[in-house]
Write a structure and sequence with these properties.
By secondary structure, the protein is an alpha+beta fold. The protein is built from 4 helices and 4 strands; from the N terminus they run H-H-E-H-H-E-E-E. The chain has a 4-stranded antiparallel β-sheet with strand order 1-2-3-4, with helices on both faces.
Amino acid sequence: MSNETSTKVAKLATRMAISSRDEEDILKDKYSKLGAKVTAVNIGGNITESIHKILESALVASKRNGLIREEHLHEGAVIGATRDALMQVCNRANGQNVGGKIGVARMGEHVSVCIFLSIGLLHLDEVVIGIGHRSLPL
């Protein structure tokens, strides 16, 4: 596995984060054929109050869909990548209501988490995206 793989996994996580519910199963099958495991989960609410829920959602979805095992290193990788992605979006969304999606992808030792959010500002919607990456043992 190379740097090329980490870039590919980041793209897969991003694609999952921007997908519709209808596209998710199609993408899971498509990426499975490439040797990748992916998942996505919808999120929403006040970003500041939702951080714990976002971390938990990424972790539960990753376990439920077989991206990681239930062990310390695997869980820590997903939580760390999710926290990195959150740090990138929190400045823009601080205190605001958001709606969006978390996309998670794993290929080999690479795992990426992408958070795609729409931030409600009166009649304007701001869009923000953040991504995190970790390596973990096979």
